[in-house]
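User: Just a sanity check before I run the rest of the batch. Below are the structure tokens for the first item. I only need the designed sequence back.
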């Protein structure tokens, strides 16, 4: 049934739609066919990408080539780096976390691997909806689970796998400010990861996009707070094995992710039963608060 639905959707593409021959998705094919304006446009896009790569990655390749041949050339400190620290403590901490994540491609690949494990949920939900089901709505619960897992991984990287905790301990900044800035730092990579699929959900309608956005924020915040309250020290390379050190935190992460995804699915169907997993998730998160927080509450 779902194959027939895909066939009908492909054959019934309206003019101006995604599969229209005059649409953007056909520009590379028309350029390969020798049409003048698509060819010029595609060459312009390729040239722009080339220039962007040269401007952004040129210094990186030069340093790599120098390190490969054993060059002892030392670069003068850049003024741009100093301005980041003059921007304030919060900006310095955020840039530190972003640089630690961006300089290790292995971390990005391991985080993306978790996303690949989660995405088949969308296919299962889409098939369960029948031939008239919406792929965008089927993607929403999986996107909530992805946001929860990625937020938990990034929070663990920022909080539990700190390379030099003794330096931060001696810094003239309170621990609360450091943890808050770290949580702010993980928000940008998370936004980059979920932005495109979330835009696809928004294409299904304002209500679907708004509800999905709210649940993504709730799931990501819950996962980040759980790792903030229960830090499990470890090395950055052990991100996929971080749950082996604390089975309780791992179980709570999976439970929160599942509850928020189920709540979104029930909300999409217009069921008031969505309040049950929401309350369960909030209660579960409340029980995991540190004793000091509970005593002050």
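Assistant: Here's the designed sequence for the first item:
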């Amino acid at each position: 049934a779902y194959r027939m639905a895909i066939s009908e959707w492909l054959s019934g593409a309206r003019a101006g739609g995604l599969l229209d021959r005059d649409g953007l998705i056909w520009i590379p094919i028309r350029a390969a066919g020798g049409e003048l304006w698509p060819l010029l446009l595609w060459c312009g896009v390729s040239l722009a990408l080339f220039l962007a790569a040269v401007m952004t990655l040129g210094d990186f390749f030069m340093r790599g080539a120098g390190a490969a041949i054993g060059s002892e050339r030392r670069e003068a400190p850049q003024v741009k780096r100093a301005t980041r620290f003059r921007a304030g403590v919060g900006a310095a901490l955020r840039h530190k976390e972003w640089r630690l994540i961006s300089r290790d491609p292995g971390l990005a690949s391991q985080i993306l691997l978790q996303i690949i494990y989660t995405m088949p949920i969308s296919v299962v939900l889409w098939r369960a909806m029948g031939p008239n089901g919406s792929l965008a709505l089927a993607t929403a619960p999986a996107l909530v689970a992805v946001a929860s897992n990625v937020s938990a991984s990034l929070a663990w990287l920022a909080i539990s796998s700190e390379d030099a905790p003794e330096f931060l301990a001696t810094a003239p900044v309170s621990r609360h400010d450091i943890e808050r800035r770290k949580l702010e730092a993980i928000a940008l990579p998370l936004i980059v990861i979920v932005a495109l699929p979330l835009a696809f959900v928004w294409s299904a309608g304002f209500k679907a996009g708004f509800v999905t956005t709210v649940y993504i924020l709730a799931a990501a915040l819950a996962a980040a707070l759980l790792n903030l309250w229960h830090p499990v020290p470890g090395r950055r390379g052990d991100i996929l094995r971080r749950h082996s050190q604390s089975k309780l935190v791992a179980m709570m992460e999976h439970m929160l992710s599942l509850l928020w995804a189920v709540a979104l699915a029930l909300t999409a169907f217009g069921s008031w039963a969505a309040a049950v997993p929401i309350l369960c998730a909030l209660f579960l998160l409340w029980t995991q608060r540190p004793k000091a927080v509970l005593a002050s509450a």
